[in-house]
């Protein structure tokens, strides 16, 4: 792998000006006249970005271990993806973008089977394609509501009543159900209306937006190092599962599904044990409630498995798994044919995804398999985590609550000066992200190697010295 990537990415970072520099500042000022730039991280020169490195208009080149919020799988300007983008299939998908529900292309089944469905989680053999992570979760929620109401009516063959149809047009019951989706405190599932009602990470996402009265359970907040707090953590996970079951049985708007992230990412990189998730699957199955696993951020290899929930050792798979980000497309996988609505147009929109993005995911899958990137991510993650443990010992307080052991490069730690830490990182040639209130999260691409990890570690040590 090294010789292949060495041929098209820089040897290392180079910082020539402050970030943003004069050219970037001028461009940002111009952009701000027509586009809100207040959330801007870094104005980027994508033509000069390459592999693991992101460039800006002033010629600064940073090692990017944030990767567009975990969304770049195999590097900037990857030659394999460029080749796929120039193909006739891609051109056809782009300029003749089909309304997939009405006018799917003749080879759509082959595109799905040779791409998105090739890596489908075990037990899930169908897919609904979507545009983005929020969209994937919202359509999964819709599928859950329709599935539950079909069961309550007695089966998909039962027709809707006139009262149901009339009341639905008034946003009233029984046509509009009084069901809910349960999520967890500090979770993040998107910013659209339905998904936002399951997002609990930060008030800024939700303020002023009407929300559904849906339940939230406590996500177990583990203490680190895990081996020193095993008894406390087990008790926290049991309490969380007890709360889930209580809400399923008693919440006034009955949950028809529970949605959970394998690792709560935006909410602070919060982990739970495989035993917790196996217990969650058992409770949802016991009470005939669907389990939706939100793999938007954790999916496609970042945790050293293609899907993070593979770490759980489930014998009974989730009912739906949502995906986006590193897949460069979006949607949800499912297996139960009852999760298809009983009528056409109930789960529908004009685009229902994008063939061009599905083709890009197919190329990404090919690159991941060709270079064995999932296993390599597991190996590099183990190396990186071990070195970070050493840094944490040498610089007390700078790498608190180090977490992500055995989870590939999906690693995080807390820093009391988190925002200053992220800003200082750019001066050392590294682009890093944060989450929650104090977490520094690493979200590198799958092509990160030990040599990149060494560059990162040297920068992290430099930052720790500055902030100590």
UniProtKB/TrEMBL annotation:
Per the record, a Pfam family?
A: Aminotran_3
- Key word Ribosomal protein present in the record? no
Q: Which cofactor does it need?
A: pyridoxal 5'-phosphate
GO terms (BP aspect): gamma-aminobutyric acid catabolic process
Q: Which InterPro entries match?
A: 4NH2But_aminotransferase_euk, Aminotrans_3, Aminotrans_3_PPA_site, PyrdxlP-dep_Trfase, PyrdxlP-dep_Trfase_major, PyrdxlP-dep_Trfase_small
Stated EC number for the protein is: 2.6.1.19
Q: Does the keyword Transferase apply?
A: yes
Which PROSITE patterns would you find in this protein's record? AA_TRANSFER_CLASS_3
Q: Which GO terms describe its cellular component?
A: mitochondrion
Q: Which UniProt keywords apply?
A: Aminotransferase, Pyridoxal phosphate, Transferase
Region ranges (Disordered): 1-20
Among the GO molecular function terms of this UniProt record, one is: pyridoxal phosphate binding
What is the main EC category here? transferase
Q: Which reaction(s) does the protein catalyse, per the Swiss-Prot or TrEMBL entry? A: 4-aminobutanoate + 2-oxoglutarate = succinate semialdehyde + L-glutamate
- Name the family the entry cites: Belongs to the class-III pyridoxal-phosphate-dependent aminotransferase family.
This chain belongs to the protein called 4-aminobutyrate aminotransferase
